[in-house]
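Input set for joint prediction.
Command: fold jointly, output tokens.
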Amino acid sequence: MSDNDAPASAYDMTHEDEALERRTLAVMVDNEPGVLARVVGLFSARGYNIESLTVAEVDASRHRSRITIVTSGTPHTLEQIEAQLLRLVPVGRVVDITKSKRGIERELALIKVAGTGERRIEALRLADIFRANVIDTTLESFVFELTGGSDKIDQFIALMQPLGLVEVSRTGVLSIKRGKEKG
Amino acid sequence: MKPQPEAIAASSQTEPLTLSGAQIVVEALKAQNVDTMFGYPGGAVLPIYDELFHTDEIRHVLVRHEQGAGHAAEGYARSTGKPGVALATSGPGATNMVTPITDAMMDSIPMVVITGQVPTHLIGTDAFQECDTVGITRCCAKHNYLVTQVDELARTIHEAFHVARSGRPGPVVIDIPKDVQFATGPYYGPECVSRPTYQPRREPRPEAIRAALDLMATARRPVFYTGGGVINSGPRASELLRDLQAATGFPVTSTLMGLGAFPASHEDWLGMLGMHGSYEANSAMHDCDLMICVGARFDDRVTGRIDAFSPGSKKIHIDIDPSSINKIVHADVPVIADCGEALDALLSGWQARELERPDLAGWKAQIREWRSRDCFAYEADAKAIKPQYAVERLYELTKDRDVYISTEVGQHQMWAAQHFHFEEPNRWMTSGGLGTMGYGLPAALGIQAAHPDALVIDIAGEASVQMVMQEMSTAVQHRLAIKVFILNNEWMGMVRRQWQELLHGERYSHSYSEALPDFVKLAEAYGAKGIVCDHPDELDARIIEMVEHDGPVIFDCRVTREENCLPMIPSGAAHNEMILGTIHGDEIDDDGKGLV
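tokens >
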């Protein structure tokens, strides 16, 4: 080291020791061929995680799609993910829903449960508590439709496990920001 | 049918003109002021080639391999500041272009690559010469397009040029199926481009400039660390850098990519920094209290060991790409802006505050002491040509001419960066980020095509240059009088001599090029001139012979084989752990070897 003992400003950074955080990002993109491949390719090329991903066109007249990505990383990595996404030409805006106080997240799940007797009745009773809709039934099975935060859906699936859980289909997280308060 | 220029000009006011896809390509290129392009024909681009046959406004340089076209376009772009244009066919034409596209991406070089594609109805059928060009180039280009509708073609080409040169520049690929080239559709001019989601920021925020000026006003050991971004921003940015340096008196170092933005003859020039940079530049970076990074990105060849990189400094980071900020090194004051705009704002702010040049006497005395180590010195040899001596003589004998330099990758590249000196931007073309062996010869073709009367020299190594040797044929055909100056040490010096010796216990695994060609005969076989020189006493005369020859030359400069490229920061070491070389009494110890 040199003779200068000034405090290091830049090297307070210890990325490796930082805890992983989970974030939900809403990515507004031009809906054009290959845009999803660009976004997904960026994540794999730079070694970022994707925990869930949803995409659909939300404004047909302007050809805009909204991609919601749940990812995890250190704060440094998360900052890079946002910046790298914005480098892509069709990406217009990236909103960190998790950091926003007004963020709302929801997921939709379809859950098939098979069983008879007491187990069937218990499944239906729990579905009622979770406000899940029954969208298909046979004498030996139900298909439940459930919306809510991912935690709620995880919890419901865990409860269905001993009651004859057969199959699960989930949309992944969708997100939006609450409207601004008046005043 | 050939569209009339008056009709094209009138088309913007009235109904758009209806043209074939191939005609739209050529008209759009002309509207983008493309005067030169580099390419190789093939089945899927023949309609475009047929249209080029009818125009004399665009010069097409036929290369011998598509990689050559890509690097030539890069050389053209770096030496002019305009986007380079390359044209290739589908399948192998496109895949051969992947290396130059990636190279341009890493070094932020504006380039537009047009590739042919199989007809739309055959896409996805594994047709002859089909490949997923947009899939392959998606991750190595700034942006790419597959144009499936001829109606979209004109807008796509104009947008591609806009994307290539705006923001952080880069390569853009346009893949055009053959049926789209034949189909007819409307031609629109460049004004049709509208992309609300792509709006790169150019102007710095005033508060960022204020914070930067606050740090600059009180710095006692400041340094400008400049990069390729200054060159990419245009000649005005280089002028503003000189003006801001004159106002502040701060010393300046630069990355490999930024050489020429600040004059090497200036007393406050520290030389290049980084792994093979100067001792004074790296020491100044390590000990500074304020680092002003202008258009550079803290590459690992620059920073060395990251947790020991300039530990006592505040850092101002000017970059047009927000993802460069805080990517490797934390910026105390990030300035997201075009380098030229930011330098302009800093200079106006410095003048508005009526700041004087601070007293940097102590800092400059320290820098003089580092400089007195004379880190690029080497032992003279009366009987054999040292590679450093060869570059020095080349510099001395050509510096008063209109000279442009390209390089391949390896030891010769670093010796060129150390011993050739640049006063102006856009004079130095080298593959920095990707480190592409075989870049220099085709890049020289592109430079020579852009500057027909200039002296263009590819400082090469005998290993790199063989990767693209076929392009000598292009040089001869198109009368591009490039000079290929080979520092021939008969092996891959950087790999063998430097890394395998230092790191791998002198186990020289596959790094000796046996059966090297006779470069003089090779030059003559292509119809070029060959010169060989192996004695220092003859070197000057041979260099003058090369420079004065009106045509392409291969110069086989036989240099000493054992020379290491020094000084060197072994990777994983800090800036102040530089190996200066044995002639200064520094032996490379075991610890040093472990750090490579």
